[in-house]
Specification:
4 copies of one chain form a homotetramer. Chain A is an alpha+beta fold. Chain A has 22 helices and 11 strands. Chain A is globular and about 75 Å long. Chains in contact: A-B, A-C, A-D, B-C, B-D, C-D.
């Protein structure tokens, strides 16, 4: 298979080919990887399908390198090639539980893509499960446990999920390529060459330090530049409010019979099956949104149009000190005729670009270890000044969203509103005098 | 706007910005540029929106170059900058009339994207028309006439449609980038630099010969490699048969009330409005296909699943001499339990990579003229041996499609069927003895 | 080793590492791959060293693919891995006999880089020979015979020299990268994947047809665009005349004692040793040219300045019919005060982009064979219309070079001269009336 | 002119074309940009010529952007287009004073490329000066003053030399391209678009923050990875010692008459003219080194061979605490028969990746200012956490160099020597017990 990131994706095992041909996996073609981000970066129209085969390919290359350079001869902490198939399947299927606009959808309907991934792997009704079961009866559960990080072999687990894994490496390169930014590039080939298995997981030779550092910095930059972009987040806010409104209308029986969004009903009723979930994709949701553009509920109709026709809210950053001013802003928005519940929002985006292990911390992570010439380890941020600078700090911002109409010069409450805005920040007009 | 092909797309005119923000244009985000091709080249998930802004950007660059280097001082055949806006709008909107899976959809429902483009531009009910009318009352019609090639200024017409125009240059580069093939690349910057307006349209300085030649060859290679790929064509065959079956079922009143594909009804009834058409996109069609996977009509259900879950037909090439054998193959397919009307097809794909003007020919084209140092013209194929080799010849192939199941080793009629196949060609088994 | 074309060059054998570290190989760092071409394409400053390690890397990748996919089990026409080292060494060393500005130098001094390659490999005085001999006493001769195409295993020979070999594939990609043109690109990875050994050499699976076709076309375009560029050829003409003049001056004892170009003496005297030859590089020749800029011989001094300071001759194309006019042009050049022997030249450049085997022909070549699904072969130009168009035809041009001063508007003989020039062609002014 | 970094370099002014055609500028073709670095990164064979035209091209693009977007209407701190030519010439010529292996050569012979640049511009004997004088009598001095940073218009000065100037932007992109590393890439086009002139120099719109940050980080990474590479520094150490030895031999009259390196004599005698300097290039120096390979002085001969045939010294890092151990190491090297004066060295490489203005500091720099929406400025490190982390800190290392032979297992003093080495650091063997 031709691929713009990896040139080719080599499928050597019939199990992998059969998994790709299942309907659950083909469904990923109809779910965009970056959700609303292509409203900002129009090139970013790639799907979770494309990313998933990319993660498979990187996993395959890691397995090949490990088998070529570090084959285990038994109990030596090196690579046991019998782990290959479970690693490849986990790489390919790690995102199989994602649905349309996952983040927002989960928030509104209480679904959980990680549980759904496990369900798709282990439920006998799916084609994916049928393919996996042919390998062995407990194979579906094994693949699921890799994704859940409970699999005993930490090398396999860390390949798929750690601070530098096949998933992240593929999405950085791919999102960078499709958005056309060049922040996400790093030297994949060198990182792969310098990876090596050891007793407790995966390490890198010290000579890969700069390549690994560059990967961490690239990741940090992609978050700042692409994933946290205010316009994409604004579109997500609108989507969130749109689904919330639909849920409210359903609860209050305001959908007419011939307009019922049939495929969403089980979710409105909070009583859905795996089969219901697997029918959803971006197109299904958008089809309802198109329908709602003619709905007699003004808010539903307006938000649907804003979402489909890309009319994002505007936004400003705020901090603890200015957060208390937000109710004043919401009041002015209400004066302009917009229900603040549906037409304003606060939204924060924080990323922990890299972290080290500290006993007692909330977010326990597998830190990146480099192996020196004499076989001893050193943790990445101990040798990289750049990584050190961003280690353990949550970076991001908190934003307040509001309709663009508030930026008009008239009427008066608009001008009042704008006194709270300066250089992309929420300020206290009182303190400016 | 960030763009992977042109780095940035520069929107300098508020008219262009307003056009991009219309709902008719935003709808292009939900229609993939290459239809079914991403079943073969999984990276090719880009939309007509992305391509359209790219065509705008190339048009803008041509206008800038013309204005910088060849500004008209009146009646000298050079560039009149008052043509700029009509050119930019035509470049941006040339594909606005496309719907989901255009080629097949048109074939089944008799829609015509060129007429629909004109309708969207000139119908007072569209947002696009409202934006264009603000420029001047006859501006919508002017833009339409550029796309219909009836606009008086041939420089503007040829920018948008000729054998080397902004449309083709963008889609070659873009499709090449997103598929990850490198056949479609050529030196856009040099071609743009060497373009120049003259009395009867657009010409190129002779020193651009190799760049233009490379563009023609790249185009030829993209057709052979990507656009004519048998698997994509096979998916199109399935889509065609699926919609045909749906139409047949509708005609014979086999759709149950609660399963009616509402948004398609006007097309089944051959009585649709522009508003009906503008509600369609890839996701809407796919949503019906998802629904049809549970339909009790076995053929509809099976074809919908094949389309959604990517189960292409197999195919072989045939020529005039072997065409007569196809009924024999269809008979064997029928024996296997597949209705040949829905499970086989012939499909041809031919491209005319480059052509010269010859009085009396069917396909009249604007040939590519190069300007020599002394101001005289010479036609491209007269100086390029490579272009000469493919000028005026239709290149492509004709294929017969059938279910993959015919390649099994059992039962007997499968083995019989396979006697007709050799090295991707249909052969006469009788002649092989 | 980091490489811009192949990302990394992997040295796995100590023999290869030792060969790279010999002084004869390190000397290639000081000889530019494209000779005078960087006067036209200023980016093309790469050396034969860089190209040679690239050829090694492609050869290594071919050997790896062959060993992985087609390991011989004895007398089956597949790949015998004992051939690996001889192939790698031949790939690395195929250009070791090249000196500075090879083409011109050979022409003037009668050296022969192929013979010199063999001498460097087999002469006991070189470090290269010492490294090779450690493998086995007859190993130097074996490597030499691969380069001379007399080695019995045709798979090894064709890897290094055939119409699609590691040498050509590296230089096309590399020259394209460094010149910044994009004509030389093709899908190396696909070609390598689809290569396979067979009894009589190397073949390609039919599904590589388009990639191989693209390689042939790319090669054709690089010749037309880069290798045959008139300005580079003009610089070569100047170099040729400069060395000719120096030889003449030496013969007529016009070099003063303290100005003798010591390292060139053995070549003036036509009595040079291998050691003499290995002292030469681009810098040595240029150093003499710098010295000659102060020489009292006006022609030597002027040509040296033209070469070093890039003052190329102008040129026009001519054909058989107009060749007879050249003496008239030379007469006018002489009237302008330029000795036609040193200030004019004719120079032809022809390439045979692809050829097929025909008994009785002069240029016998190994044609490119594609293997079909049933194991039968088909020759490339039989399936590719583009390749067919350029098969067996010598493509290129013949040019007449003259000083730029002839293009001035005065005096009269310049204006007379210019009557012979039209649109880059030599014409007969008499026939224009 | 085709260029791999900027696609094309557009020469629009005859002054620029004439400058490129001077012999002083053409000489830059024969001087490699990165000196000894291509011994580590073999692709890095590009010359100062290539870089210089690149700096010109970026300068041209800045001038174009300034003139298009910020043309001065008198005394408004915007761009005065009469400054264009002086900016372009300064960009093109900023490196004209460089000679072969500049850094080392200057160190040994006390030349100064900045003074030499001024001399080449202002001395009436050079072709460069003759071209510049045609513009106006004081034009050569004006161009020189831009390069010396004394020119009154700070916009022009900062274009050519500041923490983010045309010089640095070109060499980062170019060195990255030719080495094949991808650390040096950043979004040139965005930076150029967001640059704007103001009263005191050049600033950037705040929305370019991430692009500017990325440039600073890229620069930091290139220093760490490429410019400070221990092997290149080792080759420079050898070159330094080689020239030192030659100077010593000359001083002690050890060069035979027919072996005198004529073109170096004026430098040995510390009595050179501009004309002498302009005869030097990489090739001239290498030609002497080739000659010295046969010299009877063993040290000169050995160092020349090490330099030409790439036999670098090995090295380890040390810090203040371990510096005192170096004499012990030198003693062991001497025991191995190597004169420590010529066979060992310490060498430090430090870079100040970014700095802010602080009154009273030694290294006063123009800090990077970003302009916010309300027109106020903010300094880069105040908004970028990554830049903050490396601001004002010298980053790099100090290394001790020694012959590779010290790493052999025998004799005893080698094993003793190795006790001082651990994980690329100099350690105190006594403290390890």
């Amino acid at each position: 298979m031709r691929d713009p990131i990896h040139s080719y994706i080599y499928i050597q095992s019939p199990v992998i080919l059969d998994l790709i041909n299942t309907k659950e996996f083909q469904r990923l073609r109809r779910i965009r990887q970056l959700g609303t981000a292509n409203s900002t970066f129009h090139g970013a129209e790639h799907s979770r399908f494309t990313h998933s085969v990319g993660v498979y390919e990187i996993t395959r290359q890691i397995c090949d390198t490990f088998q070529r350079n570090y084959p285990s001869k038994g109990n030596d902490g090196l690579w046991d090639n019998r782990e290959r198939l479970v690693a490849l399947c986990a790489g390919l299927l790690h995102d199989i539980g994602h649905g349309p606009y996952s983040h927002t959808f989960e928030h509104i309907f209480g679904t959980n893509h990680e549980e759904l991934t496990a369900a798709i792997l282990t439920s006998p009704e799916t084609e994916v499960n049928q393919v996996l079961r042919k390998v062995s009866p407990d194979f579906p559960q094994q693949v699921a446990s890799v994704i859940q990080k409970t699999y005993p072999n930490q090398q396999v687990v860390q390949m798929i999920s750690s601070q530098i894994d096949a998933d992240r490496m593929d999405y950085l390169l791919r999102d960078s390529y499709y958005t056309g930014t060049n922040y996400g590039t790093f030297d994949l080939q060198r990182i792969l060459r310098m990876m090596r298995p050891y007793q407790d997981g995966i390490t890198f030779h010290i000579s890969a330090m700069h390549a690994v550092e560059d990967y961490i910095i690239s990741r940090f930059q992609m978050y700042q530049q692409v994933y946290f972009h205010p316009v994409s987040r604004s579109m997500e806010v609108i989507l969130n409010h749109l689904l919330l409104r639909a849920k409210w209308l359903f609860k209050h029986r305001q959908f007419k019979a011939n307009n019922t969004p049939n495929l969403l009903l089980p979710f409105f009723e909070n009583n859905f099956s795996l089969k219901d979930y697997l029918k959803l994709d971006d197109g299904v949701l958008n089809t309802y949104f198109i329908d709602w553009c003619d709905n007699q509920d003004k808010i539903l109709c307006d938000l649907a149009q804003r979402f489909l026709n890309r009319k994002p809210f505007k936004s400003i950053k705020f901090e603890k000190a200015t957060q208390q001013l937000i109710p004043q802003l919401q009041l002015l928005v209400a004066q302009a005729g917009f229900d603040p519940q549906y037409y304003t929002a606060t939204n924060n985006c924080y990323d922990l670009p890299y972290d080290i292990y500290e006993p007692g911390k909330n977010h326990q992570v597998t830190q990146i270890k480099l192996m020196r010439d004499d076989g001893s380890f050193i943790e990445l941020s101990a040798v990289s000044k750049l990584v050190k600078a961003i280690t353990g700090r949550f970076l991001g911002d908190e934003r307040f969203f509001f309709p663009k109409q508030m930026l008009k010069t008239n009427p008066l409450f608009c001008r009042k509103f704008q006194k709270y805005l300066k250089n992309d920040w929420l300020i206290d007009p009182a303190s400016q005098v």
